[in-house]
Structure formats: C-alpha cells, structure tokens
Amino acid sequence: MTTITTRTVEYPADALTMIGHLALPAGVDRRPAVLIGPEGMGLSDVERRRTDALAELGYVALAFDLHGGRYLGDPEEMLARCMPLLADPDRMRGIGHAALDVLRAEPRADPDRIAAVGYGTGGAIALELGRHGVNLRAIGTVNALTTGRPGESARIRCPVWAGVGSEDPIMPPAQRDAFTAEMQAAGVDWRLVVYGGALHAFHHPPVDHPVPPGVGYHPQHAQRAWHDIVDLLAECLPVTE
C-alpha cells in the first residue's frame, strides 16, 4: 500500500457549489486519472474510500459531487432531484464536465489518460460524457444501464463495462436489452456483467436511513464488481504504459 494524500475540492456545477474528494498517489509524477461518480444519494464515505483505494493503486482519483455537498438520505428528496436530472442529458453532462475540468487541472493527473467510473446516477453521468465524445480510456458503470439520445453513443471512443444485479427492478431485463442494443448498434466495445441474485445498489453497504424498494447490499457481488472495475482500469488505463 502506498502513501496517499487527500483533499476536498470545491467547484461550480448545476448552479451549485460542488464539494468533491480528490486522492493523490505517492510521488510527484503525472499519473492516469479516474473520475468517480456516486449513487443518487450523493457523495459519501463509500465513494471516498474507493477513491482512496484507486490512489493506493497509483491513480489520481476524483469522486465528484451531485448535490452541492449534500447527501440525500430521504428517498423522496433524492428521487425528486435525480429523476429530472436523469431525464436531462445536458445537465448530466454539465455536472460531469465540471468535475472533469477539475481533474484535468490537477498537475498530477495526465489529461490524456482518464477513465470514468460511476454508480447509479454517477454512472449515467459517466455514460453521458462518453456520448458527448469526451476522450476517455474506459467507462465503468454499476446500476446505470441508461440509454441515450439516438445515435449519440456512436461518439463513445472507449470500452464500456457495465454491471447490474439480476434482480434489480430499476434496471430490468428490458432495460438491459435496450442498453446493449444501443451499444451494439453504435459499434461500442461493450461488456455487461449480470450478478445473480443482486438487487439495485448491491455494491453499496447498508445505510442507516430508508431506501427505495428493490435496493439491497450483496457483499460477495460488491467485491466482485470492484475487482471487475479494477481489472477494467488495469486493461484500459494501466498505471504505467
């Protein structure tokens, strides 16, 4: 394990002051970088720990914010903000680009070697960056089988890895089929992993507040999904090239 440094970063997006979490690996050289997007509840210690873990592997990593420094533990409040956001690709892209600008401006980050990894709403934002033609080395998503506007996925210029629980009622088989059909028609190098028996947000440890129906933690698959994401980064964005 390497020594890492972390700090919070403030930046404007979506008419809010966002508060992200930046983690830097040991050393002074430029490193490949990873943008990390949280579930719809917002940035929490779960994403901060994953950001730190990526820095320990040698990446510059930034977990971006969705709600101006707030964590929305009330499911109704979360859905009231996230549903309109998910229906507005331009807003999602704005949030993603603002965070991406922060990451690219970090002196330790190689602006030509960046991947985006996201969970739920954060994963949808990662996909929208790809659909907007951003130069990414890889996109990894969990619980984010969102479809885009016709033809825009043809702008994705990197491999896309997606993970979903087989029992996720928010991302049912019909949604999986629509997502994979879009990726295939666009000529994207895509992969989909279906984790048997897992619900929505299966990667997220239990929380001390109510959650929407169909959400549940699956510790074995959570670990497997994390390893799959690390493997994606090792393949598409190795620390040393």
UniProtKB/TrEMBL annotation:
InterPro entries: AB_hydrolase_fold (IPR029058), Dienelactn_hydro (IPR002925), FrsA_esterase (IPR050261). Residues 20-235 form the Dienelactone hydrolase domain. The keyword DNA repair does not apply. This is Dienelactone hydrolase family protein. The keyword Repeat does not apply. The lineage of its organism: Bacteria, Bacillati, Actinomycetota, Actinomycetes, Kitasatosporales. GO terms for molecular function: hydrolase activity. Keywords: Hydrolase. It comes from Streptomyces silvisoli. Belongs to the AB hydrolase superfamily. It holds the Pfam family DLH.
